[in-house]
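look at this one:
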Amino acid sequence: MKNVIDLYGERQLFEVRRYMLTEGKANGVNCIDVDLGNLTFTLVADRGLDIQGLKFCGTQVAFISKNGIVSPSYYNPETYGWLDSFGGGFLTTCGLASAGGPCEYEGIKHGLHGRFSHIPAENISVRRENRSGDLYVIIEGLVRESRLMGCDYELHRKIEAKVGGDSFTLNDRIVNASDTPQPLMLLYHINFGYPFICPDTELEIPGSLSIEPFDKNAEEGLSTWDVYPLPKAGIPEQVFLHKVKKDKNGISTFTLKNNVTSPKMRLDVRYSADSLPYLTQWKSLRPGEYVTALEPCNNHVKGVAWEKENGNLRMLKPGEEEHMMVEFCFTKK
């Protein structure tokens, strides 16, 4: 590839386009389209530098909710108001002061899944690197979740991928920039929709140590947690919490396979289990909301108050950092 880049010009091999949306609830939202050849995706700069649509070889992989891209100005922090502006997308980051169900902790009310995904990123940079003849695109940015006389989290995000390749990696470095210890709750809401998810999709979580149903609805579906039947009107969502074995390098994995779409594809997701010891699974099989999410996380998805009460809360000391890695590897079958 080095000779091709030198002879023909690297600009033809990829495209990164920054722009602002101008209509509806998306008006004023800044986005970044990244086209690497086999992989194309949209970063929403004003929503935590999260990922909206993602296509592999032309096939949509992400779940796109009926809300679509919504400006953070419409964020409703009360109880379940997060759902009013949840666009689905390939990746929605949840946290950082709380994730999971709404609750009250130390006098502060936290809505579903926290504030992070409604905070605009800053100091965004896009650059390219030639690594031994392979061309890489790197996007970086900073997202700060803060409160006067309270938390001050800095999340430094880096997304990097090889041009023409079939994988990309997300690395987050989270810093407690305040002068007091702060809870750290993080959940990567990775959302998969049709046509990638269908009744023929196979989900594998190798090394699964336990599966905990979130509620009664999940208890009733425990025996079919990895099955995705046809859509059914009004069917309730189901949520399961997996404890997954990690390898000698501290990495856990899950795999999704689709043998129907063209091309047939497989996705292997690897993530840092030392900092993300749990994997939440969300299933919604309603018409138009046919989606599953696999969510590496460091909590039980019940809110910061529950984590504290049950002795599971991860606390960051002043100046302390936590590092998270999630790698997405696609394969054409």
Observations:
- The chain has a mean pLDDT of 94.
- Helices lie at 2-8, 216-220, 304-309.
